[in-house]
């Protein structure tokens, strides 16, 4: 067995698609200037919120389920080494082969070599955040292997030469009319009379993929859960394309982040209730596929499991930050976040957008390399309330902001503020000066450089005519 959990807690630099070319503020400004994008996002997130809220309200023990999910994840992270070893043993015993990938480069090399060994030049893919994270499609294409996304939203992204903008619904930034135009332009053999009716669009995609499903001998998937007790892998989805990929090909390669392991089969009782309600607003996922190794004459006859670290060991080493590894990729935090709803997923520059991306991506890459993401939040706390496993994202954001390199001018200002606030006489004098000066006529318009960064997106409140101490003294 090869493990990374005893290595130094330093995030690798070759981590795949976890950082953008621009900072979040710069990218967000461009997104905010696109009214169609904001309409698409607003409509989609509102719809998902309403559906999710309705099915969650049906469960009188929802809060107890959330606490159970949180406790199970915390216990798993505390025993991750032992559980991964147990998973490897169980998968191997069931006829599978386990590979360990320290980073994106190693994972891509392993998968590419496995596909080459089959002699095939095309693979079908189940929707997978892990393979998007490492840039597997690009790695396969550079090796002369064609990856075909079979999830409808992922297919839309692939055909549009686009990037995903949501964990659950990667094409959430596109509306029906845009998808119709994309299908007519990029999908061979589409009826020119195709309408933008969702059922018609889904049928067109189904016809496009049918032959691919039947003729492709290698599939690549992710995994929502890996059960250490039995070596069973699980994928949950809504369309059935995953079931096709997991049963028809001769070879199945699964890429799974090491944090996706759960101790026992019974632990799925909790997560299979939490995940669909928080993500798609359903009581259960329409398709829940599970497989254990290889079964002669049934399903793929060669199974490989690639366990991916890619910075997760570094996250695990942070006692506060490791909460981010509890994420079950439900996207509930995205659907309630006012920042995400207005800026969209592309502004985050990572395959993990929204609040969870703002705390997970910087830790996987190293905070200094993603320093703007912890500030991509108003700290309203809606994400914490929505998270089915109770990840305290606001606390993590503040924790990571403290870890971001700060300019010297800011350190000097903060030191001066701390000195002033710790001395009552000096603090009273500062209050009087602020009230008298009214910020030299700049009230409501921000501060001059080098303090302008604090007020570039907010107004300074007017100093009160009377301090609390003065009010108290009068009474």
TrEMBL record:
Residues 324-391 form the 4Fe-4S ferredoxin-type domain. Residues 84-307 form the LUD domain. One of its GO terms (molecular function) is metal ion binding. It holds the Pfam family LUD_dom. SUPFAM superfamilies: 4Fe-4S ferredoxins, NagB/RpiA/CoA transferase-like. GO terms for biological process: lactate metabolic process. InterPro entries: 4Fe4S_Fe-S-bd, 4Fe4S_Fe_S_CS, FTHF_cligase-like_sf, Helical_ferredxn, LUD_dom, LutB/LldF, LutB_C, NagB/RpiA_transferase-like. PANTHER family: LACTATE UTILIZATION PROTEIN B. This is Iron-sulfur cluster-binding protein. It comes from Virgisporangium aliadipatigenens.
């Amino acid at each position: 067995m090869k493990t990374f959990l005893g290595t130094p807690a330093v995030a690798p630099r070759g981590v795949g698609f976890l950082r953008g070319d621009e900072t979040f503020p710069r990218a967000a400004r461009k997104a905010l200037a696109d009214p169609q994008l904001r309409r698409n996002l607003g409509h989609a997130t509102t719809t998902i919120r309403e559906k999710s809220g309705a099915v969650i309200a049906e469960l009188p023990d929802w809060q107890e389920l959330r606490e159970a999910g949180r406790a199970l994840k915390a216990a798993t992270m505390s025993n991750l080494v032992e559980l991964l070893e147990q998973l490897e043993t169980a998968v191997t015993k069931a006829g599978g082969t386990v590979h360990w990938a320290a980073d994106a480069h190693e994972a891509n090399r392993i998968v590419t070599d496995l596909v080459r060994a089959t002699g095939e030049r095309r693979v079908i893919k189940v929707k997978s955040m892990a393979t998007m994270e490492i840039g597997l499609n690009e790695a396969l294409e550079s090796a002369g292997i064609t990856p075909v996304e079979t999830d409808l939203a992922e297919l839309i992204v692939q055909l549009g030469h686009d990037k995903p903008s949501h964990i659950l619904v990667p094409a959430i930034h596109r509306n029906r009319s845009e998808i119709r135009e994309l299908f007519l332009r990029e999908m061979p053999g589409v009826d020119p009379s195709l309408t933008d009716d969702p059922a018609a669009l889904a049928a067109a995609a189904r016809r496009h993929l049918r032959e691919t499903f039947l003729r492709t001998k290698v599939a690549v998937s992710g995994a929502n859960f890996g059960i250490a007790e039995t070596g069973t892998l699980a994928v949950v989805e809504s369309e059935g394309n995953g079931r096709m990929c997991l049963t028809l090909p001769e070879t199945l390669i699964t890429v799974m982040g090491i944090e996706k392991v759960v101790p026992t089969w019974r632990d799925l009782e909790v997560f299979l209730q939490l995940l669909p309600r928080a993500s798609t607003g359903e009581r259960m996922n329409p398709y829940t596929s599970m497989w254990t190794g290889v079964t002669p004459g049934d399903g793929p006859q060669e199974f490989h499991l690639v366990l991916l670290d890619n910075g997760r060991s570094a996250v695990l080493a942070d006692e506060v930050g490791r909460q981010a590894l509890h994420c079950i990729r439900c996207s509930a935090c995205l659907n309630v976040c006012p920042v995400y709803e207005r800026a969209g997923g592309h502004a985050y520059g990572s395959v993990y957008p929204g609040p969870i991306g703002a705390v997970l991506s910087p830790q996987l890459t190293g905070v200094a390399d993603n320093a703007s993401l912890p500030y991509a939040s108003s700290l309203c706390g809606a994400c914490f309330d929505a998270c089915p496993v109770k990840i305290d994202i606001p606390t993590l954001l503040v924790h990571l902001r403290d870890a971001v390199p700060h300019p010297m001018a800011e350190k000097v200002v903060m030191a001066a503020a701390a000195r002033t606030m710790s001395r009552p006489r000096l603090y009273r004098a500062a209050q009087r000066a602020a009230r008298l000066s009214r910020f030299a006529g700049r009230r409501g318009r921000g501060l001059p450089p080098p303090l302008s960064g604090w007020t570039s997106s907010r107004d300074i409140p007017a100093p009160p005519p009377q301090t609390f101490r003065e009010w108290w003294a009068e009474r």
